[in-house]
Amino acid sequence: MTDAWILVGRELRHWARQPFQLIVNLIFPIMLVLMFGYLFGGSMIVPGGGDYKEFLLPGMFAMTMAFGVEATFTAISTDANKGVTDRFRSMPMARSAVVLGRAGADMLDSAANLVVLMACGLLMGWSWHNGPVKAAAAVGLLLLLRFSLLWLGIYLGLLLRSPESVMALQILIWPISFLSNVFVSPGNMPTVLAKIAEWNPLTATVDSIRWLFGNPGGQDSIWLAIAWPLVIIVIFFPLSVRRYQRMSR
Amino acid sequence: MNSVQCIGLRKNYGDKAALDGLDLEVKGGTVCGLLGPNGAGKTTAVRILTTLTRPDGGSASVAGFDVVKQARQVKERIGLVGQHAAVDEILSGRQNLVMFGRLYHLGSKRAATRADELLEQFGLQDTGRKAVKDYSGGMRRRLDLAASLILAPPVLFLDEPTTGLDPRGRNEVWQAVRGLVGSGATVLLTTQYLEEADQLADQICIIDHGRVIANGTPDDLKGIDHLDVVVRSASDLETTRGILGPESEVDVDNRRVSVPVKDRLATLTQVARALEDAGIAVEDIGLRRPTLDEVFLELTGGASK
Known about the structure:
Radius of gyration of chain A: 19 Å
Distance between the termini of chain B: 36 Å
Number of strands of chain B: 14
Structural class of chain A: mainly alpha
Strand order of the largest sheet of chain B: 6-7-8-3-9-10
CATH superfamily of the largest domain in chain B: P-loop containing nucleotide triphosphate hydrolases
Largest sheet of chain A: none
Structural class of chain B: alpha/beta
Number of strands of chain A: 0
Helix content of chain A: over 70%
Oligomer: heterodimer
Number of helices of chain B: 11
Shape of chain A: globular
CATH architecture of the largest domain in chain B: 3-Layer(aba) Sandwich
Mean pLDDT of chain A: 90
CATH class of the largest domain in chain B: Alpha Beta
Shape of chain B: globular
Helix content of chain B: 25-40%
Low-confidence stretches of chain A: none
Number of domains of chain A: 1
Number of domains of chain B: 2
Order of helices and strands of chain A: HHHHHHHHHH
Mean pLDDT of chain B: 88
Number of helices of chain A: 10
């Protein structure tokens, strides 16, 4: 456990040494919010009426969680590629610390991102309307989604081991994020796309947190918003562990 | 006592044998150079000895502990310098050493003092606070070496420690390794360069296709130094070849004849006199260390090429 904490501390030192990188990472989702909120916002149709910014922000929260896969992937594949993972494995430290440390660092990273984005949302006029308990539950669902995607990032990072392929990952993550209810309701999409968007794991989380926050367009699909991340964990947690063990082949 | 011992070590990747019954013994406090071409199995051997890879057969022990059954005890007693500088590039050199020190379970205060000691030992005290990504290749490798020495391990593995470095960086690393040898540590070093093994090692093991094909001190291998004669006119090549004997090889493009020699100076004087008597205009004559290719040709009769 101590070993894992030391590796979380490594991430905090990265922030301190690269404040510019940190700011860029934080500004990017804010930029998207501003762009969609003000530039496209006027021509967006919110299901059941209501303010588009209120509709948009919960979607952006979830999308930021999805983009976190890229950070996990980059960190894991860089370490594997540079031999840092091998150095850890040749040291007398807990076997699980490398993965636990990554998990801790990334959850912290995403939580910080979420705080900044929520603060930005509050400034733009977004808010939660159902009290702090339901708002906290919504945050919990977001972090659960992030936690599940962590294992996808670790698995892919250990599988590909080349930080450069993060570009390929982006090409995959972006359409998956957009093909959901993050920006528009699936009701306004062509039938085929709407079907895909309805089944997108992001959609379940976004529906539920809109409902919990009391924002427009939400509906209660909490069970699905819990089930999807669990399915992702059940698939990718064992795959990641197996990949890690296979490094000793 | 042997610090490193491999008995019939085997490792297959698919149907290709990376190690095919490797036997190796390194005595405590000595430096062993594991010499071989790419794909000979050097890195696989080091990965097994440092507990990173499991062997398929045979056994191996480091500092008296079995690398499979007592991996933890092995890890506490080794340092590993791999082919990449395995350090965090965003952190500074000092932050790297402190982090690895804490992962070796030194207290944070002890980790900090140890980091400063090592930075000084490796001549990095002035750059200790700079990000590693701004380091030169030689500095990175020295930092990597420092990180492997945090616990002053009794057995140190260096896997091609100078690959990809310029001559200056290579000298820096050689200096650092020589400094360690005095401290009584056992070092197993892999390299593709005979010169490097000769500079640093007490004992050289030449491996090819996953097994040891020759084993001895650098002086043993010096028995097969080469004598090169470069003649001014290509028409003299055949006569020169006659003087150097049937083992010699002719390189027509460079007007060079070379031959492996055992008694170095005696042969050189003899050949020089014979060339003079034959009236051959010599542009260059001298002894040189054989290249790895030539050592292989000697040892395998060309079979490994």
